[in-house]
Amino acid sequence: MSKLTSLETLLVQEIKDLYSAETQLVKALPKMAKAATDPNLKQGFIKHLEETKGHVERLDQVAKLLEVSPKGKVCKAMKGLVEEGSEATEETGEPILRDLALIIAAQKVEHYEISGYGSARTLAEWLDRDDIVALLQATLDEEGATDKKLTELSDQLCPAAQEAGANA
Ligand code: FE
Ligand code: FE
Description:
This protein is mainly alpha-helical and about 170 residues long. It is about 85% helix and about 0% strand. The N and C termini lie far apart (about 50 Å).
């Protein structure tokens, strides 16, 4: 916890939270990719891992602009979401249903990130920090696109998942 004395200190706190969240994801996404059976889903996780490394870099840039360290906070929410993702990787039974469980866990992560970046961007807007707004918006756009892609993938897996249920 830190002492909140200005909008800027609140923004710093949120940037640290996001930095912790993204660094946790850099470790978790390879495990999600490994557990995925569908080649498009596997590729999607690998692509988002590369993007996620870029998100960490952008937060480093934001921290530099704010003249602070991005480190020093643990995002407890992402810890929980990553734990749920890890549970999904361990599901047994129909691989396609495990893929859907991975997508559900991944979308919870994306929605959390979209919420965090949206709030941080708004704080940066209030502070008239267009340089920081641009960096946060760039990541926000990628999180949104990933969320959409995951919805498309789950729609594509749906028929085979229904069949898996019928044959069970
Ligand atoms: Fe991210
Ligand atoms: Fe993400």
